[in-house]
Each structure stands twice: as C-alpha cells, then as structure tokens.
Design a protein that fits this description.
The protein has about 300 residues and is mainly alpha-helical. Helix content is about 70%, strand content about 0%. GO terms for molecular function: DNA-binding transcription factor activity; sequence-specific DNA binding.
C-alpha cells in the first residue's frame, strides 16, 4: 500500500516520471487483492495454512511487474501502447474489485455463522475488524477508480484517501487489539459439541415431557459429571437446567392451550401433559417465560 501511494505522489508532483514506475505502482494493486484474501482466510479459520497453489494468484503481478521494465517513454503516444496500457488498467481494477467481492463474501459468511452461535469477545472483535477492513478497501477502490475517470476528482485525492483509510484502519486495529488474535479463536469448542449433543437428546427423545428428568439422569446419558452438564447449559443456553427444560415444556403447553380441541382440558391436565410435576410449578414457569398466567393466555388467544 505504501509503495502504491508513493507512486501516486511521484506521479502527481514529479515531472516526466518514467513509465516503469507508473506500471510498477499499478502492478502493486495485483498484490493487495491476493494478500487481502489470504489474510481474511487466516483470520477466520483455525490452523489455516496457505497452500502452494496460492502462489498462482501472484502471477498477474509478476507478469505486469516484468513487463514494466520494457516500457518505453518514447512509445507513450503510440495508439497500440495506449490500448495496451488502458487494458492493463482495466484488468488491474477489475482484479482488485473481484478480491474485494471475495472478502465481502467471507465477512458475510462469518457474520452468518456467528449469528447462529454463541460468539466470544475475540470472535466479535475479528468480525468488526474485518468489516472495517472491507469497507476501507471499498473506499480505496472507489477513490482510485474515480481517478481514471478524467476530471472526476483531482488525482491527488486518491493517495490522500488511501492514506486516511490506512491510518483509520491502524487505529481500529489498535482499539480492537487485533494483532493479539487470529483464526484460532474459531476453534471448535468441545463444550459446544456437548451442548449440541444435550440439545439433540432433550429434543429428539422429548425428555422434557418426563416429569422425573433431572440433571443427573441427563449427565449419565452423555457421560459427563452433573457439574459439567450444568456449566455447559449455563454457558450456551444462558439458562440453568430447570429453565432449560421448562422452556421446552412451556412451548408444548402454549400449543395445547392454543388448540381449541383442548378447550375441555383443565390447566392442571395441560401442565402434566407438558411434563410438569405440579400445577404451581407450571404456573410459575409459564408466567416467567410468557409473562401471563396460563388461564389469561388461553382466554386472550381464544
């Protein structure tokens, strides 16, 4: 990025800059895209290592970089040279835009994954950081794209905007302490796997309908201590064991109360059918989760 800005400064304030420097400066944009994608993958995947195939993505830069040494200032007004140079610029900017699009997809996929799971502080920091990073690159691309449109904006606006974005991103990286974390924060947690197993057992076997279900019986089924089971449920369901089980029971009770076919059933009968061992515990749990008594809930829905 610094080399790219340097080329723009020399072109704006220098006289008769050699075409080689101009083309090398443009060629550096062919590095930023692959570097961005590689960085995004490293920051979002645990134990990620770039394969040798990744080097293929650097070939466009190598080709343009080598070609820059064959640029001749005397041919600058040659129609063929103008066409070739214009084609190179278009390719470079489309190349950069493609990698920005790939980066956006990575961020959106990460956001979707985190929205569907319990995210840690470090995971949220990476998501925020990568979002700022992508926005910064979009701003950079737009500012440089406007530079190639004649008289759209002064040429120096590009490198100025580029510099502002980099300083801003550096500041955000410092605030988020982003240099202290990487994709390792997305390692699959053993507790998360156990919680999924617990949820599957409770739902598939409808254990919540059993009034005698307990933390001990559930722990025996998954082969861990009651303390471990309790910790996992508290961490991922953000409820204690009783509330975790009762949340499923309340959903069953709500469905029974909503069904007009059950109008002849008493509240107590519905409570027992939903898995509660007593009417008082049902009333307490129902009001806690629904915010109303079972009777008022039934009346309002009817």
């Amino acid at each position: 990025m610094a080399f790219r800005i340097g080329k723009s400064i020399m072109l704006n304030f220098g006289d008769n800059l050699e075409p080689t420097f101009i083309i090398i400066g443009l060629a550096l944009l062919l590095l930023i895209g692959p570097f961005l994608r590689g960085y995004m993958l490293v920051m979002t995947n645990p134990n990620f290592k770039l394969s040798k195939q990744y080097l293929v993505e650097l070939l466009p830069f190598v080709m343009i970089f080598i070609a820059s040494f064959f640029a001749d200032k005397n041919d600058i007004n040659n129609p063929t040279t103008v066409i070739v140079f214009g084609s190179i610029i278009i390719f470079i900017y489309l190349h950069f835009a493609t990698y920005i699009f790939i980066a956006i997809k990575i961020v959106l996929r990460l956001k979707y994954q985190l929205n569907n799971s319990l995210q840690t502080k470090s995971q949220k920091a990476i998501l925020d950081w990568l979002t700022f990073l992508v926005i910064g690159f979009v701003v950079i691309w737009v500012s440089y794209f406007l530079n190639i449109i004649e008289d759209a904006v002064p040429y120096i606006i590009g490198p100025i905007m580029y510099s502002i974005v980099i300083y801003f991103l550096s500041y955000k990286a410092y605030l988020l302490k982003i240099t202290d974390i990487d994709g390792e924060v997305f390692k699959v947690n053993e507790n998360a796997i156990l919680f999924k197993e617990i949820s599957n057992l409770v739902i598939a076997n409808k254990m919540y309908l059993n009034a005698d279900v307990s933390l001990t019986s559930l722990s025996k089924l998954i082969g861990v201590t009651t303390q471990k089971t309790s910790e996992i449920i508290n961490q991922y369901a953000q409820k204690n064991f009783n509330d975790f089980i009762n949340s499923y029971r309340i959903e069953v009770a709500k469905n029974l109360l909503n069904d007009s076919k059950n109008d002849n059933l008493t509240i107590a009968s519905i409570a027992f059918d939903a898995g509660f061992s007593s009417l008082s515990s049902f009333n307490t749990a129902f009001k806690k989760f629904v915010g109303a008594t079972p009777s008022s809930f039934r009346k309002s829905n009817n």
